[in-house]
From TrEMBL:
SUPFAM superfamilies, A to Z: MFS general substrate transporter
Keyword Transmembrane helix: yes
TM regions (residue ranges): 23-45, 105-127, 139-156, 162-183, 204-224, 230-248, 287-308, 320-340, 352-370, 376-393, 414-436, 442-461
Entry-linked InterPro entries: MFS, MFS_dom, MFS_trans_sf, Sugar_transporter_CS
Native source organism of the sequence: Actinoplanes lutulentus
Location of this chain's protein in the cell: Cell membrane
Cell cycle as UniProt keyword: no
Protein's name according to its UniProt entry: Na+/melibiose symporter-like transporter
């Protein structure tokens, strides 16, 4: 471990036990925060939205309607193998309104939260670059995000309406997202360049594994304990951040020398990395891939109930949705472990990022042509491999093309903004597609096109290989 040469900055982990300890807790902290995303976005929020909207659309005697049977009837009517009676048609009309309403409501809840996060994350990146404390530059922001975000998570559990749910989830996701941005910046702070790809790969493994554990845990426990499972996620994120901050204490930044602060310069600074040709194209490509991926994954629970044939019940869909991610785990783990190391060894990032984007696009084609449960599993497996390649190598590519490594927090905050922008726009677009077309097939077509275009953007990068 090398002590910092510049006062107020971090030490560098050259190898040995300090580096291994850093890798462990970096991975665990990422796993804790992505467990929240996996559980909330994949299972808990869609269920909460569906419960609220179901109560709005199916009232009185209709409150006991069997959605799975109604969706099977819809499929049979559309296929011409059944004719709906007047009463059945009334229920099918309610189903159409309910399906569009829950898709739009979920897209609203998720998109508003991501947009707020998108605006806050780069600001915090800049502020963390300038933070002077005896705990270092990044730790105070991580601790604040964990403690306050956990409090808002608990409040989300009790939201009675879509509007209140959107407000509370926005507050929760915004504060919780102070963690991954500052956590990723510690790689630029503490890890030498030749170990960045490896670190990003192992951290990506924690990222993905946390999401799987969070999603499966929610799918298994929701039918047993209900939305109280949210309390567990709140405690988990606090524990993960506490372990990283306490066991990997940073050097004090009280002696950090920073330039005088001016708000005009502050906001104009966000445009600096986007003026760089290579950074801008990597950023735009990340937006497109995140856009397509979010569009295809946001409504997984609803697709299991309304897109595939035969349709699943809400309980079965809740348990099945996380298994789609579990099926992709082996391929993703292998890709995460190998992609970063391979890119470090060959000294090239672009071919791997392009290959991952193309494979992601190909995966979208399968459920587009084959609306069945096996197709969703095949798509998830291929997309998992693609994402396993993409996560560490694209992050390493961003670090390679940083315009100013002394402003890594700012620039990587802008990089994170690219992911957030795609994740915000994807559900909104998908929700509108469902409302306009009355189904989910067109969502896959849109996702395919967006992820394919993202590969083209990487070809425009000049300096990185």
């Amino acid at each position: 471990m090398t002590e910092p040469a510049t006062p107020g900055t971090s030490m560098a982990y050259r190898g040995g036990k300090p580096f291994r300890r850093y890798l462990l807790w970096y991975t665990l902290a990422f796993a804790a925060i992505t467990a929240v995303w996996g559980g909330m976005l994949g299972v808990l929020l869609p269920n909460q939205v569906q419960m609220i909207e179901f109560a709005n659309w199916f009232t009185g005697a209709d409150a006991g309607v069997d959605l799975a049977a109604l969706n099977d009837l819809k499929a049979a009517v559309e296929a011409g193998t059944a004719t709906a009676s007047a009463e059945q048609q009334r229920l099918l009309d309610l189903l159409a309104g309910f399906d569009a309403a829950r898709a739009q409501a979920l897209s609203l809840v998720t998109a508003v939260a991501v947009i707020a996060t998108m605006l806050v994350q780069p600001v915090v990146g800049v502020l963390s670059d300038r933070t002077r404390s005896r705990f270092g530059r990044r730790a105070p922001w991580m601790v604040f995000g964990a403690v306050v975000g956990a409090g808002f998570l608990v409040a989300v559990r009790h939201a009675p309406t879509i509007a209140i749910l959107a407000l509370l989830w926005t507050c929760a996701q915004t504060t919780l997202n102070l963690i991954p941005g500052t956590l990723q910046t510690t790689v630029a702070d503490r890890v030498p360049e030749e170990k960045v790809g490896t670190t990003s790969g192992i951290g990506g493994l924690g990222n993905f594994a946390g999401g799987i554990v969070g999603g499966v845990g929610a799918g298994v426990l929701l039918p047993l304990v209900g939305l109280d499972i949210i309390y567990v996620y709140a405690a988990l994120v606090v524990a993960g951040v506490a372990g990283f901050v306490l066991l990997l204490r940073d050097r004090p930044s009280t002696d950090l020398v920073v330039a005088p602060h001016h708000w005009g310069t502050f906001f104009r600074g966000f445009l600096i990395p986007l003026r760089d040709h290579d950074f801008r194209w990597v950023w735009l490509s990340r937006i497109l891939l995140s856009f397509g991926y979010a569009a295809s994954t946001t409504f997984a629970l609803f697709m299991l109930q309304s897109y595939i044939s035969p349709a699943l019940s809400l309980t079965d869909a809740t348990r099945m949705a996380p298994l789609l991610t579990v099926a992709s785990l082996p391929g993703t783990i292998v890709a995460l472990l190998l992609a970063g190391k391979i890119s470090d060894r060959i000294g090239r990032r672009k071919p791997l990022v392009i290959a991952a984007s193309v494979l992601m696009a190909i995966s979208m084609l399968i459920p587009l042509l084959w609306p069945a449960l096996p197709a969703l599993f095949v798509q998830s497996i291929l997309a998992g491999i693609a994402f396993g390649i993409y996560l560490p190598v694209d992050q390493a590519l961003f670090i390679d093309v940083l315009p100013d490594r002394d402003a890594a927090g700012r620039d990587l905050g802008i990089a994170g903004l690219g992911s957030n922008l795609g994740q915000a726009l994807g559900p909104v677009l998908a929700g509108q597609v469902v409302a306009i077309t009355g189904g989910y097939r067109a969502v896959w077509a849109v996702a395919l096109v967006l992820t394919a275009i993202s590969a083209v953007g990487i070809l425009r990068v000049r300096k990185a290989k």
